[in-house]
Amino acid sequence: MIRKLLFVTKFEELGYDAVKSLLSLREVSLEHVVFMYVIERDKVAFRRGVGYQKSEELRLKESANIRFIDWAERLFEIGMEVGVYIQVGSMAAEVAKAVAREEADLVVIGRSQKSLLEQFYSGSTVTELVRRLSVPVLVYKPVPDNPFAFGKPFQRPLLATDWSPASRRAVDYLIAIKPLVEEVRVVNVVDEERISGDSVMQAQLARKDAKARLEEICGRLQAAGIPARSHVYVGRPAEGVEKAARECQATMVVLGSSSKNRWVERWIGSVPREIAESSAFPTLLIAPERD
Amino acid sequence: MGKRVLVVDDDPDVRVFNTTVLEEHGYSPEEAVNGEEALQAIRAAPPDLVVLDVLMPRQSGIRLYRALKTDPALQAVRIIVMSGIARASFLKSQQALAEFDGRPVPEPECYLEKPVDAEVLAAAVKKAIG
Q1: Which of these three, A110, A134, A157, is where a domain ends?
Q2: Which of A215, A241, A247, B42 has its CA 20 to 30 A from that of A164?
Q3: Residue A143 domain-assigned?
């Protein structure tokens, strides 16, 4: 159940229209939205000749506060509970603190604005968040092909599975939000390297194996009353998932996040991170179970 | 010792401002940083007055106000709402919640929209509890 949602925004990427599009979650118990704005330290940091930029901090805080008051009034008026955090610090650390303090069930965050180089040096916010949190993280974006509209993200999710424990948790999650889900497409992308031999048989075996496992997942979803279909793709995982999402007219990509440590992810990359950062679709990352 | 006033606000600057005004006028201020903490404090020892913010972490002033006004043991606690949230939104919110649970609550006796001058706050407190 999603009772409390932490909505993290820098305003340029996620506005009130994004909040509004998530209110369908009230059908699955959403009653409390907590808004959060984190002023990254370097925006107000000490600079030679200027000192700590207190007035800039105040300006940013007050601008955020005014926006949040407006949003909060609209949600209060429909009977929802609302809270606000405006903090200076590191995004991932502050979000993790707020999640713990509020006991939030879902974190919604916009796509990172950092360049690949910045992400390499300072780390990706999404990667850091997923590493720190056990609650799902929705990297939210407008609907593909229309940067000005947020749709119904939970209507037709594409569940991309790599058979990991986190992927299995993603199935449970979709079952828990069943009233919002019209249909699920379940996809596995078979790595090209697995079928790069000379034998046609090898490729067909890989497909058959994946299809059988996908059908098991579809069976679980169908048993819970959610229509589901399976698809096998071949190629690079992130590209395959994107292609599948487009072909299935998905409204969101759902996937289990890896449990690699941060240095491994920084050097060799991570499929969930790549999809979350580069996909045109909203991406829901389900963390593996914490010990 | 003056009458006890519980200041409920997540903003430390606002708490300092309010408690200073209250002390200067002879009251004994106490503090809570959100609705949840305030409710515990009020249940433990009901104050003479609560100066209540609305938009706060953990539990908003809207839910705290409702909790107090629907609890026979606490509904006599006087409340001044002091918030950036418009009074109209506060009232609509209470109406929406009342439709849901069938328990209407009275309108706040005093609603101050931030920012509030020291004199205005002091006058409102004096009017509420003397």
Answers
A1: A110
A2: A247
A3: no
Whole-number Å distance between alpha carbons of A201 and A142: 42
Which of A72, A78, A85 has its CB closest to that of B85? A72
> What is the CB-side half-sphere exposure of residue A149 using CA atoms within 13 A?
7
The residue of chain B nearest to residue A103, with distances taken between CA atoms, is B58
A277 lies in which domain range? Answer: 148-291
Model-level pTM? 0.91
| Contact between residue A87 and residue A94 where contact means Cβ atoms under 8 Å apart | yes
A60 C-beta neighbours (distance < 10 Å), count: 18
> In this prediction, does ipTM exceed 0.90?
yes
User: In this structure, are A153 and A284 located in the same domain?
Assistant: yes
- The domain that holds A236 is classified in CATH as 3.40.50.620
Quickly state the pLDDT bin for A13 (edges 50, 70, 90): confident
Determine the length of chain B. Answer: 130
- Options 3.40.50.2300, 3.30.40.10, 3.80.30.30, 3.40.1410.10; CATH of B4-125: 3.40.50.2300
Cα first-last separation, chain A: 21
Nearest CB to B97; choose among A74, A79, A82: A79
* Residue B115 C-alpha, separation from nearest chain A C-alpha, in angstroms: 12
Rounded to 5°, angle at Cα A240 from A239 and A242: 65
Cβ contacts of B112 within 8 Å, gap of 6 or more: B80, B81, B82, B83, B120, B121, B124
Per the CB < 8 A criterion, the answer to whether A242 and A274 are in contact is no
pLDDT of the residue at A43: 77
| Mean pLDDT score across all residues of chain A | 87
Q: Do A194 and A76 belong to one domain?
A: no
- Both A160 and A92 in one domain: the answer is no
Smallest Cβ–Cβ distance between B55 and the set A77, A84, A102 belongs to A84
| Neighboring chain B residues of A23 at a CB cutoff of 8 Å | none
As to burial, measured by CB atoms within 10 angstroms (0-12 exposed, 13-18 middle, 19+ buried), residue B74 is middle
Same domain, A161 and A86: no
Looking at residue A67, its amino acid is R
